[in-house]
Each structure stands twice: as C-alpha cells, then as structure tokens.
Write a structure and sequence with these properties.
The longest helix is centred in the middle third of the chain and has 31 residues. Among the domains are: 79 residues, Thrombin, subunit H (Beta Barrel); 292 residues, Rossmann fold; 123 residues, Orthogonal Bundle (Bovine Mitochondrial F1-ATPase, ATP Synthase Beta Chain, Chain D, domain3), CATH 1.10.1140. It contains 30 helices and 49 strands. By secondary structure, the chain is an alpha+beta fold. Helix content is 32%, strand content 24%. An 11-stranded antiparallel sheet has the order 1-9-8-3-2-13-14-25-26-12-10. Strands 4, 6, 7, 15, 16, 17, 18, 19, 21 and 24 form a 10-stranded antiparallel sheet that branches. Strands 35-44-43-45-47-40-48-49 form an 8-stranded mixed sheet, sandwiched between helices.
Length: 1152
Amino acid sequence: MAANVAVRPSLEEVSKIVDAGRKLPNAPNLIPLCASVSSEFLTPSSIYLKVAANSKLSFLFESAATTETIGRHSFIGADPRKTLISGSSHGYEADPLPRLDEELSQYRIASIPSLRLPPMTGGAIGYVGYDCVKYFEPKTKRPLKDVLGVPESLFMLFDTIVAVDHFFQKVMVITYLHVPPKDEPEGALGKAYDSCKKTIADMLRTLKDPHLPLPPQGPIKLDQEYTSNIGRPGYEAHVNRLKGHIVAGDIIQAVPSQRIARPTSLHSFNIYRHLRTVNPSPYLFYLDCEDFQIVGASPELLVKADQDTGRVINHPIAGTVTRGTTPEEDQRLADTLRASLKDRAEHVMLVDLARNDVNRVCDPLTTRVDQLMVVQRFSHVQHLVSEVSGVLRKGKTRFDAFRSIFPAGTVSGAPKVRAMELIAELEGEKRGVYAGAVGYFGYNTVDSSTGEETEGAMDTCIALRTMLVKEGVAYLQAGGGIVFDSDPGEEYEETMNKAAANMRCIEQAERLHWEEQQAGGKLGTEEMVGMQNGVEERNGKHLEARCVALDYPFYSPITAPTSTPRSSRRSPPHTVASPKTSSSSSSPTPLLPAVLALFDISSAQLPSLGNKDSVHDGDDKDKMAKDDKPAADPRMMSVTPRIRYNTIGGVNGPLVILENVKFPRFNEIVSLTLPDGTERSGQVLEARGSRAVVQVFEGTSGIDVKKTKVEFTGHSLKLGVSEDMLGRIFDGSGRAIDKGPKVLAEDYLDINGSPINPYARLYPEEMISTGISAIDTMNSIARGQKIPIFSAAGLPHNEIAAQICRQSGLVQLQKEQQDGVNKGVHDDHDDNFSIVFGAMGVNLETSRFFTRDFEENGSMERVTLFLNLANDPTIERIITPRLALTTAEYYAYQLEKHVLVILTDMTSYCDALREVSAAREEVPGRRGYPGYMYTDLSTIYERAGRVEGRNGSITQIPILTMPNDDITHPIPDLTGYITEGQIFVDRQLHNKGVYPPINVLPSLSRLMKSAIGEGHTRADHSDVSNQLYAKYAIGRDAASMKAVVGEDALSDEDKLSLEFLERFEKGYIAQGAYEKRSIYDGLDQAWELLRIYPKELLNRIPKKVLDKYYQRQGKKPESKDTKDGEEQGNGEAATNGEQNGEQNGGGEESLI
C-alpha cells in the first residue's frame, strides 16, 4: 500500500530541501511528510480509538469552537518515540523546562509553506503540574503530602500525529523524516523516505479499517459516593484564614481549592466521550499516561506563543455566574455579572497581574489588553474573560514566557508568590495536574532558503474542569478567588458550581453505559435517544441523594437574582427534572446531537426526517399569497411567517421602538409602510425580550407612529450579487441609480458577512500597484492587505482615491530579461482584477467627480460604485461599506477575482455610529463615540484577506479624515490597531504644492515584505525603499539644521541631502494626477535620485545590489511601459548621465 500513498513532498523535493539546507549553518534535520483523506466517516474520537488501540501512551486534543478563531484542528497521537517525566519518584526532581528545551532544540523542521500544515505537527505533548512552581519561584516550596502519586510533569515526544481539519473536512497524517547525516552512504535518504511513507500508509490503513475498537468497559456500579478532602467546614475555614491575611495586607486575593474523589468503574475514555458533549469547552483533552489518565474540558488559555508573530497571549478569567434556564435569563445573569463591582474589581486586578507577567518577558511597548471583560458562556457557567498579549523581547524564549505566567493568577492569587505560599500552607497537599498546564511545545522551524530559525509554537491551557483517573477513582478539583468581602458559604458553592459539569458527566455516563449493558449492548438509535432523556430525568434524584455528604444541593431549583450580584454569581446549577406534560402531544426534546457524538455515529448514517411543525395555517398562507411583492429567490425564503404590527411605540432619531413584538431577532429585516403607501426598510438593532429597536435606513422623517405599519420579515438583509454589477452605480442602500438594466442576481449574500477564519486565512502576498510611487515603491500593498489612508479636511484624498481607481492593477513578473534586469508587466487590464468603491457622506459635487472621472477615463467597466450622499439618511451609511464588501466577497471567492475595495470616508461612517448610539441613549465612550466602535470597525476591516482554496483576494484601502488633523482621535487610533499600516496625507506637503501630498515617514505598510522583491517586483525593491527612507529623514534633519546655522555652515554631505530632499519631494513624491508610474518606473527613478550620493554613502543597500544597479555603464534599463525606450535611453538619459557624472565628480557614463 505504501507505493500508492500520495505523500507530500516527493522524494525529489525532499532531496532538494536537504541539499539546500546542508549549506546553511543551522540545517533542518526534520522534514515533514503528510498525506490526506476525507474525514466524512471519521470523528476525532473514532480516530483516537483506532490509533491508540494497542498503545500505553497517547493523546487527543480537541476544541468545541470549530467555526470561529480557534479549534479548526483536532490532534491525535500514540506511541511517542520518547517520554520525559519528572518528580521525586521518577529519577528527575528539577525544573522540567530546561530538559524539555534541550530535547526540542536538537531538532529543526524545514519550513514548507506549500504543505499548509496545521499549527501543531508534532513535538512535546503533555502537562506541567501545579507543584512545579517551586522550581520557578523557590520561595513557594513547602513540604506537601503526595496523595495522588503522579509525576510533576510528563511530556510525550511525537514524530507522527493525525490532524483533523474540520474546516476542509479532511484528515492529515503527518510524520517527520529524520535527515540522515551527510556522511551516510548514498541511498540513506531514500530509505528514510520509504520508511516514513510506510508509516503513513500503515496509519491510513488503520483509519480506513471499518472495525472500531471500543474501550474495554467492565460492569458498571452505580450510586457510588463523592468524598471531599476537606468538605464544606474545611473550605470555609480556608476562606476565613485567607480573609485574615487580606485584612493584614499580606495579599489581595488567593485561590484555595478542594479535591473531590469519586470511585467509578467507567473506562476513562468513556468519561471523556461524555464530557465533550455535556461540557463543550475551548480546550478538550485526553492524555493516557499509562498508569493514569487526564480528562479535561478547560475554558482558559494559560499562555500561547504564536510562531508567526512572536506574540505571547494570556487569557485571564475571573467572575462567574451560573447559566440561566432561558436565553432571557442567561442575558439577565450576564448583565448582572458585568455590573458587579466586586467581580469587575477582582477581574481588573487579575488583568493587571497578567500584564505584569507578560511584561516580564515582552517588550513593554508591545504589551496590550486586546480584550477586556467579555462574557463567555460555557455549559454550566458564564465567565468574564480578557486577553493580554505582547511581543517577546530579544533573548527571551517561549519557556521564559511560560515560567513568567505559570501558574495563572486565576488559580493562585495576587501578589502571586505570597498567595501561593499561603495556599501551600493551607492545603498541605500537592495539587498534581490541577491548576497546572496541559498543551504542547512544537519544534523550531528553519526557512530552507534563508536559514532563518523560528522558535516553535506553544499552546497551553490551565488544567481546570479536569479529572485525573487513577486506579478506579476519578479526582476532580475546583477553587475560587477569595477577596476581602468573600462569603465563605458562597465561595464553597462556587467551587461546586465549577465541578458540577464533571460530576454530572460521570453520573450520566455511568447511567448510559449501565442501561446499554442491561440491554445487552444492542440498543438502536431511538433507544439511545430515549435513554439519554431518561438519564436526564433520573439523575436529579440520584445525585441529590448521593451528594448530601458534601452538604451541597446540586440540583436545587434556580431562583432568579433580585438583589446583589454575589448571590446570583454563586447560584447553584439548575434542576434536571422531567419535563412537565401539558398535553398528550408534548414530549421531551431528544438530545440527539450529544448522543451521536458520544457513540461516534455520523449524522449521515441516519435517515432524513420531515419537519411536521413547519406547516403554517391557512391564514398565514393567504396573507403571504396576497403580498404584492415579487417572489424572492428561494435562498432568501424563511419558514417563519411574516408578522405585521399596526402601531409604533416611539421614534428616536433614526430609530423606531416597538414593544410587545413576538420573538424579534437581531439583524432581522423590517419593512415599514407609511400612510401614503411609500415603503422603507430597516434592521433590528436591538432585540431584548419583546422589545425591538429598529434602525430605518431611509430615515424616520414623516413616520406616523399610529398609522405606520411595520412588518417583520423573518430574514436578515441580503444583497443580490452578480458579475453584472461591474460598471454599475448604486446608492448607499444598494439600489441601482445609473438608469441601467435591472441586475439579475446570481446569488444572495448576507451583507454582514463574517471576518475570515484565521485558520483559513492565507498570508497576503504579491503586489497590487496603484501607479503612485509614494505608495508602490515606499509602502507597497499586498493582495489581501488592509491599509488605510489617513487624511484631513481640505486635503486631496478624494483625488488620490480616484487616481488609484484609474491606475491600479496587478503586478506580474515575466521571465524575460532585458539588459540583465528582470522586466515586469503592470497588468492593469487583467480580467481577474476589479474595484469596489464605497463612498459615504460625500457631497453632490464629489459624487459627480467620481462618476465622471471613472467614466471618462475608462475605469468604470471594472468598478462597482456605491454612493451615499451627504443628504441621504445618515443611518444608510452603516450598511454602505457592508454592501461594498459583500460585493467584493462575491467577486473574490466565487468569481476568484483580485478585488480592491476603497471606502471613503470612514469618519462619516463612524459619525453615523455615534448618532445611532446617541439615539439609543448609550453611555458614550471616547469623544462621544460608542464604546463598541472598535468591534464594529473590526467587522469591516477584517473582511479583507485571502482564503485557502480560493484564488481571489480582497484588499482594503479605507480612507478617513482625521478631525482637526489629530491622529490620536478615536477613529484613526482604533483603525490603526486593526489594520496593517497607514498611508499619511500631509498638510505641510500639500501647502508646498506637492501632489499627492503623501508623507512617507509616518506612513507604513506592515506586509510590504511579502509583496516585493525577487519573484514579485524586483530584487532591489526593498533595499531601494530602505535607502530612500533613510536619505529623506536625513534630508529633513539637514533642512532643520540649515534653518538654525545657515547653509554655509553645512557639510558637503548635508548639502547633498538638501538637494535630495528637494528633488525627492518635488520630483519623486510629486506626480501628476493623471501620471501613472509603474513600479519599475518608480524604482528606476529612485536610482536616479540616489545617484546624487557617492556609492559609499548608500549604506542601506548591499554591495551586490549596488554593483548591479548603481553602475553608470550602458543605457538605462527600459521600463516596460515605455514604448520608445531606445530613444529615451540614447537621448534624454544620456544627458542626465552627463549631469550626474559631473555632479558626482566622475566621468562615468550614467544609466540615466
């Protein structure tokens, strides 16, 4: 079978990588090989059971969040090549990280971007127990009882893993080829390759085997008791002791815990299979460590090191409230949690502690709070969550970051060291895995072409909601943060709230397997579903009786909070009781998805079921039949019948408020019919209970609250999209206004879209040319980048936007050479390039300028133009950029075009947000803008990018005018955080008569390097750009010096710098509004400027590049857009060469 496996890369490609790597000082010695199959009939659990069937050491990593920013992949591995164990009874009692670092540093992976491998491809997988803190902070060391008898740390080193890609529905088998030494006999590499290929083939054969080896499950014994190591009295005593230390000023907060033990005959993997269904969490893991197993569903990241950016990320979690029984109660409890002064103070303290931990190893200028006090919901509780990150300082590693942050302040306290000392003295026992870290450390990677080595990735979570299963006993541990006003009884109950999901998991899993054993193991799907419902009903009685020993009413009914936040925060989980029967037709809701996941049954294996409840009554049908609106595309239809309301509760600015609405939905489209028969449309901006707040796109003037009829349509706002939209003009709400034919929609897309999943995002590469040298040469834009233009009132940003529309295109490189220089093609007529232009709040004169300019200069045929005028309803501006981006997404991801989106003016958009926020009477944020403006802008800017599996791209150039030229204003400030650079339009240059007045010094394109250089533009591009920046800055300094001391006091070099400054601003930055320069023209002109200086003063350009481009022999390489290149080279260029030669004191012949 090995011969038929499609393994990548091929042996020939591996040989090339090895040969290239051996020329590098730090040659890669691991080559990743992989093969893929469809995951249609495979789940992570079934893969684990097949792969680990005969293994003593194995792991499974999953995540409940598989559609957003995390959790795209699940990882499985078995039979590691090596295991690193530490602890007093394991022969190594010391800090485990140096040994782990030493082991991993022996290996370097060859980076092969074309493989598109997941973030983890092998390395060290395991845990660091809480008690290892004594090696990081020796002051915390105390003599502790080792009740559990497990290693302090354990890491398994894997060279072969299985990764499940949930986004593309495929399974990847990845293994490492160990590169044989150079002195090995010929053929050694081929043998190693064949061995790896066989490993992959064997693994694929195992996965395709229809037999599923289920865990060996012995007879189930029900009704076993829970026991706590300290119980309620002991825990409350700990709380009181710690409160005494808080009063004395020793600490601000501490997190004591209690351990609960529960005998069980369940196989540990059967516990995990049930845990992943009843307590879905961001970090789900199962580690089989031979003598014991670790089963966890952790909500909290400890520390992550991003291999691409070097950022260290930490997620503090503090503040807990139980889940509600209804969505409304959920929201009410979440609001109460947000409003709790005690929880907010505790959370802010832990965020500050996280910032200090991150600052210890990161550049303080890069440390930031990315997210603050966001409510995240889990199966049984809701938490306040924040995110803190920073970029590692030079000389610091991921292991330094781990030491600095471990253990998290959320499981220790503040100040951290003193809190840990007190915890150790109070608890008197080793915590083991609990409150430690579970995760992985990857191998370092080496760029095979440059030899640049990048430290491997690290991703670890805190071992919370985690069970240790050993010798037939499940141990689970939970704690809570103690502060000055903590109530001992409520703190105890919080620990039980946190442990409830795992305790319920054991009970329900036992009951399910016991039922199956009683049925002889031959239950069908319907019986399994019915059994699940029965377990939910019966477990309430079983658990309530068996938890009396812990003095905690697990299943007492919830009482909605009416007083203090603390009472609601400590509320016990809700009752699991049998459904109340109101009629013979009612029945319990089957928990089919959970049961299917538990028993690894694919939904594809079940017959399709009809939905009997989807039929409307006759009145609804008649109402819909009488609707005189044209029938919509079936993709827009909703099974929800339309509901009409005859009165409006009130009007506030652009908003309409309705009360007593049945089930309003956020973003639902609403149709309003005015007394005169005219219709307007709106969207539900806020839905709370039966109250709906609707933003009306056409404004609210003329709306009669008593006579206007409102209809809730049941679906969200969608835009009909088609390639016919190219060359067309629409208003800000998407209606065609150019008198052209009706656009026949090929698809209907939700205008809100969604930001690109980071795991599906490709790094922007290749360049989009604007025809403006200040951008193309100095701040090159990559396809898929988002880079704003910062301007101000009175500056020509609209003219620049129009010029970009006229001149922009793709840059593609040709193989041919001319005069030894690669020549490129500026492909501005490529069928795969188009522009979507969204204008918001522009006056009539500006809108006419755009349309006239596009039409007269021939660029309209590739442009889709959305125009929201200044006298249009302000609220319309909120949807205009979303219409533009939805159109761009259709062009990019369905038609596979490269799309440039220009949005102007984003300041008008933000002013519209402020108006809506004021109408809703929200508490204003900075300078009156809403506090959620950062999030709202992110939903626009983050729609730029490139997606794996699609050839198209979306590049964004949002233009914003800075009020009062203030770059610290919230609009440019927040935009700068989200986007990838900025282009700065400068008033001082504008006053000098320079057009376009782009100041390159404060401008920046963060992704420039991926778009330029050999293979993209020209090999000298980056060096020329760097030298221009340096000389321009020196020229500005020389001008300032001249103003102080006079020109006579300047050195010869300073005078050259002044000449450069004048020619750079007036002859290079400045170019006509209709002058188009290709990137190659821009580079050639840059060399002409740089030849003002002697060769030795161009210290930012390598000698090899100088030798190639600086020499004044022969004629200037012809620019590809120059049709009469020979005449220009023999005439004008020669004259310039003579002038330059004289100026630089030489007789050399110039290229220019």
